[in-house]
Design a protein that fits this description.
globular, 244 residues, 33% helix, single chain, 2 domains, alpha+beta
Length: 244
């Protein structure tokens, strides 16, 4: 069941979609992405987040949340059209700071490699970092003193650039080692295939409205779950392991 949002507290000034900060009926504070984020963004967040969780990546807990028309009517913000009533994506708030270059040395190599390969697999080019800056969309959990993975709204990108990924991903230093090691390649392919056993169940838990662009659910989203499933299962092909 969706978590009912009972209070709209504020709006974040970070991130491409500037999520709303809301309190759920369960007492948790959520970063909520709603109508303004776009339906495809919500579907990508949900599916990629579920795959990341299956693979054991340190992702913040997330839920489908529900915003009532009454709550929207009672609030007094001018930007509530970006939130909208209905079902939205909510990620539990954590005490975090954006990942810096200094943090990278504190992240276990195995975890760096896992995040790198997960992003490669789901064609997520929305993580960039060099020694002079960038937009890693990775965070440092100040309470656990560890990495926290967020933001998959641009996963499954049909315009994904392997070249840019190889040049700018925060953990790109591991690419050559992994791609040239048949044991590593086989291990990751095996893990990805195991995660894909949950694909249909994950897609079936996406709220039905999210598969449409309009509130009336008459314009289907350009997101072919069956074609994408086949692409993700192609993780043993030479093409998958070829970096330009």
């Amino acid at each position: 069941m969706p978590v009912e949002i009972v209070e709209i507290i504020d709006r974040s000034t970070q991130g491409m979609t500037f999520p709303f900060i809301c309190r759920g009926e369960d007492g948790n504070i959520y970063f909520v992405k709603g109508r303004g984020a776009g339906r495809r963004s919500l579907v990508c967040e949900w599916i990629a987040g579920a795959l990341a969780r299956h693979l054991g990546l340190p992702i913040a807990p997330f839920e489908v949340v529900s915003i009532s028309e009454d709550l929207i009517g009672l609030a007094s913000r001018p930007d509530l059209a970006d939130l909208g009533a209905g079902l939205a994506f909510g990620s539990c708030r954590r005490a975090i700071t954006e990942l810096t270059v200094a943090h990278r040395d504190q992240i276990p190599v195995a975890l760096q490699r896992d995040v790198l390969m997960f992003d490669w697999w789901i064609k997520n080019g929305d993580r960039t970092q060099t020694d002079v800056g960038g937009n890693p969309n990775l965070f440092w959990d100040v309470e656990s003193n560890s990495l926290l993975v967020l933001d998959h709204n641009q996963a499954f990108d049909p315009e994904f650039s392997p070249k840019i990924f190889g040049e700018l991903h925060p953990f790109r230093a591991h690419i050559d080692r992994i791609f040239s090691d048949m044991v590593d390649r086989d291990a990751y392919a095996t893990r990805f295939e195991a995660a894909m056993a949950t694909w249909d169940a994950i897609c079936d838990t996406v709220p039905p409205d999210w598969w449409y662009l309009d509130p009336e659910c008459t314009i289907p989203l350009e997101f072919d779950r069956h074609t994408l499933k086949l692409l993700l299962l192609d993780c043993r092909s030479n093409a998958f392991w070829t970096m330009p």
